[in-house]
Amino acid sequence: MTSNKSKELLLEMKNIHIDGFSDERWHKILKGVDLTLYRGEILGLIGESGAGKSTMGKAAMGYTQPGCKIIKGEVNFNGIDLAKLTEFEKRKIWGTKISYVAQSAAASFNPAHRLMDQTISASNRLKINPTDVLKKDAVKLYESLQLPDPENIGDRYPHQVSGGQLQRIMTAMAMSPRPELIIFDEPTTALDVTTQVEVLSAMRSIVDKFNTAAIYITHDLAVVAQMADRIKVLRYGEEVEEAETRDMLSNPKEEYTKSLWSVRSLIKPEETNQDYILSIKNIDAAYGSSKVLYNVSIDIPKGKTVAIVGESGSGKSTTARVITGLLPQSKGEIIFDGKKLSPKLEQRSKEELRKIQIIFQMPDTAMNPRQTVDEIIGRPIEFYQGIKGKERESKVIELLKMIELDETFLDRLPSELSGGQKQRICIARALAAKPDLIICDEVTSALDQIVQEGILKLLQKLQKDLGVTYIFITHDIATVKAISDEIVVMYQGEVVEQGLKSKILNPPYPDYTELLLSSVPEMDPDWLTNLLNKRSS
Amino acid sequence: MSENLSYSAKSEVANLIKRRTRVERLKIALSKAPISAWFGMAVLFVYFFAAIFAPLIAPHGEAEIFPVAYAPWGNGHIFGTDQIGRDIFSRIIYAARNTIGICLLATFIALGIGTVLGIIAALDRKYLDQLLSRIVDTLMAIPVMIFTFILLSVFGPTNFNLIVILGILESTRFFRISRSVAVGQVVLEYVEVARLRGENLPYIIFKEILPNIASPLIIEFGLRFIFIIFTISSLSFLGIGIQPPSADWASMVRENAILIQYAQYDLTAGLTPLIPAFAIALLCVSINFVVDWYLYITSGLKDDVK
Prior knowledge:
The structure holds 2 protein chains of 2 kinds. Chain A is 37% helix and 26% strand. Chain A is of the alpha/beta class. In chain A, a hairpin with a 2-residue loop joins β9 and β10. Chain B is mainly α. Chain B has a domain of 206 residues: MetI-like fold, CATH 1.10.3720. The longest helix of chain B has 37 residues. Chain B starts with 21 loop residues before the first helix and ends in an 8-residue tail after the last helix. The interface between A and B is large, with 58 and 35 residues.
């Protein structure tokens, strides 16, 4: 990490007010935030979703999304007020002096062009150097970002490389014109922990190498701790606090900042028993002709929580789909409550369906946007228990109280709820069926830290009160520590390990478990450096 | 670590925007409606009013015959009389009832068949989808006009046959649209949740999917209504659409077409066959205006303010 002793001012944003327009109304997104950035410095912007951190990052380029506008404030970049420039003048600065790395590289590349052409397109547009010089430079950038086969990777199309590689190529694209400022907008959020480590280290080393200033936007404090010299915390469009990374981590001043990493303090003592509610035995499953599960066997003890961990593509969500019957297995059997479950959803009885419920990762798509909370929770009550009218409503209110909400939520639509509230409603909907087993498929990974903690606590409480069993699918080890009794590690469609939490999380590990566990970012700012040293030695 | 005193699930969204009621949203939309939309709505109101209250508004009966054929304008017959002495103004009003009624029924049948089958195809995505989609392709490959002509010759040109045949032939368009929009919805988890609950097909179609794909279907409904008016009018003009003595704009154009030759002697006589033609045109333009406005509201185009 560079010291910012030289303190040469690069960007100064003063009293930024931004309004957004939606549903025929203007509302405030940013309410007077200041920001200063010196040359070669990395500033971390963190906050929950809706805190205005992305809007702030974009405003640093003098850009606002369609439907938003800068009401007040200055964006002084190198002495020029970007907020006052015309679109044409700003385009000369964008892509050359300031560049932007977006969250989803897969969605940001043009699938019809080769990676090399896209990497150098901004530099080419402004004729910084002849094309062949730019191409040679891009290869060097690929090399320093540790991309495989740097000479030829540029000839590929975006779909021919992995997500982590694409994110690094996007960093090369941002770096190609040698900007003075790069804005990273949640660049690793969509990646697996194991890939995230590679991308983070590549980005950090290249920013260091060219002494580029950067704004790093994320909601993950552990990630920002590795990247930033200074951290600014935003909430509701206002600044909460700002401090040097080490100061902030060791001594956060505001209550809110402390709460941001509270999930990491949640711990559950493990318990288990030999009374299995669900056993899946030697399951194979395939999507069409591509096989995704190989001989998977898992036992789920009654009333306990089993976490299934692994990176994306490891088959953990597919396992859930097989258990629910959405994807019939091609081999093996599922024993639920002592009875064999038929592979196909249509052949299972209503009672069998009622006993297994699932909660999905994205509450936004898991609820019908046109139904109110009352309809969403009330339907399973009516469907399984035949309760209607007033009685149904009182049952719904009972469930709402159970998930720490109240009857004022009855007539709300999903779009009128926050991410955490939505997930709570999904939990209530699952509970409304009075299930024995709930499959939680990455239920907290789309949520902010503080909300995650609330949801996990709620799930623990419900288990204590109702004795329901959970299968918890996740790639987040902190969540696993917080909630599970047993852990199943999956890799490429196979079970690597199954056992008690204490056994899995303590050495000796199989190789893959080791890699997975060591890749989880820790709050220590030296974690990444130490990890990389350890891995290279 | 201490409990988070500041956190509560209820207050998670501090600045939650209060939902507007349907009436409020309608008011806002109306207050911003362009003049073309107002014009369209006003015209449609007049048409539907005329269609519903035809017997009260029309001065004479639909098939009432007066002694003078081809009577000039005025003298108790606002637009004169036709070739066998029926009052043209009254027939234009009754025609609104026949044309709009038959076209609406046909469009509703098309909407119903096409949408339900389209969603079923989207839910299936396998053999049934292939079967339905290829049948629809085949039907769409045959020009609607000619196909209707043949079928009407076979089954006879009654109003019932007209409605059913057009309803089925035009349902292909609704099938295409609803299938393509529903494909995006059926993969979302809320549909999976309903399937996992054990819900039956009608519930999934009507309660879960349909409300979420309604806007493109409403727009298609408006446009398809216009096309069906055209088709029926063309058929009537050719003599196999709506049958006499029921009044119909297109057959009125045909019946009085000869009057155009007398325009050099009496301009109003020359205009007489053009009035029902104008009625068709005005209706179609008005529907288009309203549909355009609805499209603008629902498509999110309005969110692009600079």
